[in-house]
């Protein structure tokens, strides 16, 4: 497994838990040393236990030496980062291409080289070209095997997947990857074999569609606020239609994270390169960016339109619960907007504050939710951590300077909050 980031480490640990012999490789010597010492560089529920058990059993190890493990491997997975390239939004394939060259030099017998990183259509062709150019006599096949893991639920998703997509026309590669995933057959996980380019596009299409679904319900939330409807009931009403489904219909401050923003930008750029404009996906990106910036104005409106000198408490910083991932989190433009409007911000997140300090260095950080709320003129719920769903609301009110709550995740009921004397604003639940 080349790369020990989110995809590589979770995938490697799960494959090892299946009983396979897995070596995770990374060029970052400090990260490898930390992993060997039992330190997990990302927060993902149960990952520390899974890694520790597989290491103890001798099925999982970590190294900076790529050549040895690749030379012995039946399958080599490329799971390196593909961030948005500065300037144009394309996926940056620098690390993928570098991994391909290093793998090529280490191949000894027939090996399946698998792109697990999210990559644009045609990347597998380029990986194959690089390997053939670097090592003309190498025996190998290149396959695409995109991941569909949700941060915070990645281990369950890996072990109980909706589908496993494998893109290759090589029969030997199909057999190897079929054997790799065979432990999942008891769970009746559907393995879909398809063309390599099709597999690459499936990943981007899936993320673009889910991002579109989130953005759609967010726009319905804006309309619901104006006409006096409840977007949560709207979402339930349309989600009960099995052609639509209920997932990803929770209105909020916009999507973030490591996948949706990056992947929607990348598929738009790929489409433009092929003279196929994706107007819907382009609109999704624009609407989402505008929405995240607009959340600070929502807070301002709750306090009468003036935040100068006001103290704002922010609960939740990561882009979703059960992760410490701050990449493109809605909290970043929200907090930046609050600061621009003259507010003083104090924030709390159960696991994301160390990562947040790199993105938001100019705010205060609290010890818990109640410490965060001390003296606040308004409290904003940004991430729906389970800890925030059962707050001691009377205590919270006593800690605050003004009982104003802006709930961007709709985790409380308006009637309950008003009964407790809060001025309560939420998303898409218009006044009756």
Describe the structure.
It is a single chain. By secondary structure, the protein is α/β, with parallel strands linked by helices. It has two domains: 6-194, Rossmann fold, CATH 3.40.50; 201-432, NAD(P)-binding Rossmann-like Domain (Rossmann fold). Helices cover 44% and strands 12% of the residues. The strands form four sheets. It has a six-stranded parallel β-sheet. Strands 3-4-5 form a three-stranded parallel β-sheet, with helices on both faces. Strands 1-2 form a two-stranded parallel sheet. Strand 12, helix 17 and strand 13 (423-425) form a beta-alpha-beta unit. The longest helix is centred in the middle third of the chain and has 32 residues, at 196-227.
Quick description:
By secondary structure, this protein is of the alpha/beta class.
Question: What is the H level of CATH, i.e. the homologous superfamily of the largest domain?
Answer: NAD(P)-binding Rossmann-like Domain
In N-to-C order, the SSE pattern is HEHHEHEHEHEHEHEHHHHEHEHEHEHEHE
What is the straight-line distance between the termini?
55 Å
SS strand fraction? 5-15%
